[in-house]
Sequence to fold (680 residues):
Amino acid sequence: MSAPLIWIGIPVAIAGVLYVLRGLHTLTFISGLLLSSWLWIAAWLLPIGEAVTLGGRTFRISESFSILGREFILLDSDRGLLVLVYFALMVWIIGSWFARPGAGFIPFAFTISALLIGALAVEPFLYAALLIELSVLISVPMLSPPQQTPGRGIFRFLAFQTLGMPFILLAGWFLTGLEASPGQSDLVLRAGLLIGIGLSFLLALVPFHSWVPQLAEESHPYTAAFLLFMLSSMISIFGLGFLDRFIWLRESETVYFGLRVVGTLMLLVGGAWGAVEKHLGRTLGHLSIAETGISLLAVGIGSPAGVLIFFWLMVARLVAYVPLAAGISMIWEINDRELNLERLWGKGHQFPLIAGLVVIGQFSMVGIPLLVSFPARLALWRVLAGVAPLIAAIAFLGNIGLLISAGRSLSALFVPFSGRDPHQVDTSGGIFAREGTLASERLFEWLVYLTMVIAINLFGLFPQVYLPWIEKLLLIFERIGG
Amino acid sequence: MNLLLDQYAFIAVGILGLVSAVILLTRSWRWRVGALALQYVGVFWLVALSWPVGLASIKLVVGWMAGAILGVSRIDQLPSDRRRWPTEWMFLGLVMMLVFFSVSTIAPRIEGWLPANHSAQIWGGLLLIGSGLIHLGVASRGLRVIVSLLTALSGFEILYAVVENSTLVAGLLATVTLGIALVGAYLLSNLSEEVMLE
Fold:
């Protein structure tokens, strides 16, 4: 048995089975939850490339899997990545129980996760662009289910992601040439330019970011949030792979300066548009743009500390983004698929638990003290201020924009004089029963919401508990990870 | 066969120039899908200059399949002819001329970058990429976005065939082309008539 078969082949096969069973919502959910849990626990416990004794039998998980002359390789050092991806998938599947993104969400999520891992595992690595493109194509039916009129966002998403692929493929060819004859400055320039343009398309960097808020507005908020999280995280890791692999990129101060400038720009754009945004769904998109900027700033630090902060921010984003997306999705369902802030006036009094979850999730993503992103953001600002104080100061302005955005959501949802009858307040949390009516399982709902809120707090208060595990992710990059 | 294709390679560039102009200028879905099918003949021709004819024929077959997928989706229920204002014709015609001029400026430089067997490959590839991107710039959703994406992608495929002739890449690029056509047909099936040809 080979590692790529277990962590890429099996999830794709599982997705196929779950897609057939998608009508059986509870069965799909439980199967998806158990299988994603099994995948990350297996990645945690089973070493790759070494003999393992299990139940009296000894076996070895090999590192590579060949197909049509090309190889998928997952090393023992990649186990941290596998744990991260499948743990994230499990968390997104848990959130989907409340968000109800549609019957196809779990199988599509499995396929996209497996394909993106495949993109990071394939050798030669330039094939990754093709696998990323395939995951983009597969995500389209998830984002725009049948009977939903597709808007401009989905077409732009498809166009920009497709346009990114050729640049990466061509860059791969130039890089092969560079490996054969290193030191050719014109080849370096061309390869660097192509990688830059390709990643700009794939990561939705300014000015190719317009589809992000559009997609978040048009699609189910939870599916859009899942895709924005997965794509941006995995493509960022793919981009880090370029830095790790090529010395001329890794040791170029211009590259790190460029990352810091683009990261600042992204944070400013996300923050500025987020601050004036009137649609809660689009706010998810602006947050995603800003988060990409924050990740670029972390990598732009240009040291192993920056890479550690990059992964730390990713974990923090997961913990905050899932409750936020789930909360927004529940409000979307309750409020007749309307997320305009003017139409959400005072809804927080009607559904205080869900609205509270949204507000806490949004403030978490800004990096408010005691919440999950705070320690990672604090570390980022401290290290960045030491490397590039001016950039740090300008980028912080973008963060203020995100804070204003969270404040506006709080103000809209919990406006005190909304003219509502306080006797009609529903504190059940608004979780739906199967037939779509509100169920009143108050104890269960309270437990779930409290768990989410406590998780946001615990991750913020005790980072030392999970930080050693995040440090293991640095093993993926043997050079830039220190 | 290869010698023949090589000798008359600029005919393929002419075909590609013509079909990309038709794709941009026409509002008839029949003409657009027909031009797309013809476009893949040109793509096959130019790719065959670097690849074995058998492998290059994948481009032709897949391109025609993509055209067929788009053709049999719900667009066949639409009226085949829609009128266009003369000023629109003029504007798009000028844009197309701009693409031709840009390609003629850039092509000699790109020839130094890529080890093309024939300069027609660079011209054809850049022409399709240019017209596809311009088309993408004036389309917001509907059939035009999908066709322009396929156009730009096939231009890239010509250039990439010059440097890479792996079977796996050919297969994956074919999957991507078919995937775009399938996703396009899926999205078009949910659009209103007006938006579909927007």
